[in-house]
Design brief:
This protein has about 110 residues and is α+β, with helices and mostly antiparallel strands. The chain has one domain. It contains four helices and four strands; from the N terminus they run ββαββααα.
């Protein structure tokens, strides 16, 4: 089956440090108060990401990866990291890198305005 760009329903986590910053800075829409974390992609039990588009819509990532992991992650990555826990780490670091790039972009934009 051809794999397309997957999008996921974020998992929002209520935290003591939460507030409205995710709504304001990242345009997140969540019904909870005091959300401090938005897990964009996860294989953590109890917080597994669910696909929100295409033929996999409504299916959890942990159900799709065993069957289509090589297509989604690439053959080399999937072969080297076949456990769900390792794949979860890959997605987590990709997510952190995305946050870093967004923050770096904001810093450069502020500097450019001066």
């Amino acid at each position: 089956m051809p794999v397309y760009p997957l999008t996921f329903k974020p998992v929002f986590k209520k935290t003591v440090w939460g507030g409205e910053k995710l709504k304001r800075d990242f345009n997140k829409n969540f019904p909870l108060a005091a959300v401090g974390e938005s897990w964009e992609i996860s294989c953590v039990p109890g917080s597994v990401s669910v696909v929100k588009n295409g033929v996999f819509e409504g299916r959890p990532l942990t159900e799709i990866l065993p069957q289509h992991g090589a297509e989604i992650l690439g053959k080399k990555v999937f072969a080297a990291h076949t456990t769900t826990r390792t794949i979860m780490k890959i997605f987590f670091f990709a997510f952190l890198f995305g946050i870093f790039i967004k923050k770096l972009y904001k810093v450069f934009m502020r500097a450019a305005e001066r």
